């Protein structure tokens, strides 16, 4: 599969059917990837269907393909979600990209107390759209049949509610126990929480732990917010058997 493109989320992708790429997908396929009639591409609806297709028509406005075969790819289990605190620059965006490539199932942006970046109004709308686009592009890059959902922005109260009903791990370098130890008896969905540049504030950590969250360390070194989630997800994939 040299090329993977996203069809509409409601696209059934059945053998013998025709499917279309339009908008940015079509434009990229023809003008950047130089896709031509007769070539083979892979198409996914982002919900597990992975179709092998042959190109029938190719223009920057529309690429028409015929579905030759379809596989339904099972999602990794148990699910692992990433709560990523907003960070300055593109550090939070780098976390979204890397964790998508590592198989994260849901991404939840968090307005943490120490977040330098702040989302509200139009900025929040644009931020969510940007994270969604990054997750979609990273999914295509890593040939994923499942595109992770980017959830709405949350604050501490919503995170505490999540901690009461899910196995939540706070990635905290000062924690006495390791993340691996905290995941041994976990059942999904598992929620990994990454703080901003200044870390999770003590008051936030206390509130989350009181709601049921557990702190765990990913190692002796302090990581940037852009890389902590990646390290945590790698550990989770191994401990939970998602990569076996």
CATH topology of the largest domain: Alpha/beta knot
Global mean pLDDT: 93
Number of helices: 7
Q: How many domains, as an integer?
A: 2
CATH architectural label of the largest domain: 3-Layer(aba) Sandwich
Radius of gyration: 20 Å
State the name of the first-level CATH class of the largest domain. Alpha Beta
Tell me the name of the CATH homologous superfamily of the largest domain. Answer: SPOUT methyltransferase, trefoil knot domain
Number of strands: 11
How much β-strand is present in the residues? Answer: 15-25%
Report strand order across the widest sheet: 8-7-6-10-9-11
Describe what you observe in this structure.
The chain has helices at 23-32, 91-101, 122-141, 156-165, 179-183, 202-210, 225-239; strands at residues 4-6, 18-22, 40-44, 49-58, 62-72, 80-85, 106-110, 149-150, 167-171, 190-194, 214-216. With 244 residues, it is of the alpha/beta class. It has 2 domains: 4-72, Ribosomal Protein L25, Chain P (Beta Barrel); 80-239, SPOUT methyltransferase, trefoil knot domain (Alpha/beta knot, 3-Layer(aba) Sandwich), CATH 3.40.1280.10. It has a 6-stranded parallel β-sheet with strand order 8-7-6-10-9-11, with helices on both faces. A hairpin with a 4-residue loop joins strand 3 (40-44) and strand 4 (49-58). 39% of the residues are buried.
Can you give me a brief rundown of this structure?
This protein has about 240 residues and is an alpha/beta fold. The chain is about 35% helix and about 25% strand.
